[in-house]
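Listing S7. Sequence submitted for prediction.
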Amino acid sequence: MAEKGQGFGFGLGKMKELAEAFKKAQQVQEGAKRLQEELEQMEILGESGGGLVKVIVSGNQEPKRVEIDPSALAEGAEVLSDLVAVAMKDAYKKSTETMRERMEDLTSGLELPGL
């Protein structure tokens, strides 16, 4: 009889751990939803040519707008294309870094496998 009681007690302990894990996962899921909303509202600036070209994206890499200083037009299409590409890469890099940092903040302190 004692062995059964010990087994049952161990089972309850595991159920409690499982319930805690589900609770943490739910908190992360709710936090991730809020984070997604935050990222959509963010404006992250990428630029090139000392500010001649600016690309603004959301925190989840959605393009929002491109700003081109009129003086950049005098550089010609090829140079302008390069400036836009560099500004886009800058904005993308900054937005992915922001997303990664926010996800790390969200999951810090949690012992969830794979995160």
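Caption to Listing S7: primary sequence and predicted structure tokens for the chain studied. Strands lie at 44-48, 53-57, 63-68. The helical segments are 2-41, 77-107.
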